[in-house]
Amino acid sequence: MAKTTLDTLADDIGKILEEYQDDVKQNLDQITKQIAQKGQQALKNESKSKFKGDRYWKGWKVDLQVGRLDTKATIYNASLPGLPHLLEKGHAKRNGGRVEGTVHIAPIEEKLVAEFEKQVRSKL
């Protein structure tokens, strides 16, 4: 253990906190990327089993934005951007009436959020 004087105590504490902050950010970045990729794969599998056509399930992509202080991951459908909302929430028919939604995104989101929280708690 290094000895420190009262004059350098604040600097030493600052260095320790910066190292801890870097470790936490690195762990959070890794967890975010891993969870986003799991979510993308889960959405592909769910979409493939529930809906016809390759274009919808093949369109799921992950957008990872790494900032100085945070990392954001967005899972979206690149090939048919408006369709996930219509399929999840339902929509009006052209000649009247309504199509009920097929909930397939919300359950996956809930699982991913729970898993993200669990992994963050275990890493910290």
Q: Could you describe the 3D structure shown?
A:
With 124 residues, the protein is of the alpha+beta class. It contains 4 helices and 4 strands; from the N terminus they run H-H-E-E-H-E-E-H. Helix content is 58%, strand content 15%. The two termini are 23 Å apart.
Brief digest:
This protein is an alpha+beta fold.
Query: What does the main sheet amount to?
Result: 2 strands, antiparallel
Order of helices and strands: HHEEHEEH
Question: Strands across the major sheet, in which order?
Answer: 1-2
Number of helices: 4
Count of folded domains? 1
| Class of secondary structure makeup | alpha+beta
Low-confidence segments, given as residue ranges, are none
Classify the beta-strand content into a percent band.
5-15%
* Overall helicity: 55-70%
Task: Tell me the span between the first and last alpha carbons.
Answer: 23 Å
Characterize the overall form.
Answer: elongated
- Number of β-strand runs: 4
| Average residue-wise pLDDT | 92
Round the Cα radius of gyration to an integer and report it. Answer: 22 Å
